[in-house]
Design brief:
By secondary structure, this protein is mainly α. The protein contains four helices and no strands.
């Protein structure tokens, strides 16, 4: 019984870039890296499709979303601390 091989994102990116460059055919790349040609074709397609995301600024939108979420969480923490302190004083502690 063989185990399924897992490839790192770095390896996939390296092979996809080689495929995009076109210096070797997909079959030659498959032999060179000992992977099936369909995998390389899929990685190449994903790389080309995802390339637009590098230029559209979605990374900064995602970062802004995280900042908003962080501010909301800090506000909630502050509210809970105030409520806890109020209830502790009311109970006489």
């Amino acid at each position: 019984m063989t185990t399924r091989r897992r490839f790192t994102a770095e390896f996939k990116a390296k092979v996809a870039v080689e495929a995009i460059r076109g210096e070797l055919t997909v079959s030659e790349l498959a032999r060179k890296h000992a992977v099936h040609p369909n995998l390389i074709a899929g990685w190449k397609r994903l790389a080309i499709d995802g390339m637009a995301g590098v230029f559209d600024g979605k990374g900064s939108e995602r970062e802004q979303g995280r900042e908003v979420e962080l501010r909301e969480l800090h506000a909630k923490i502050g509210q809970l601390v105030i409520e806890r302190d109020f209830l502790a004083k009311a109970s006489g502690r």
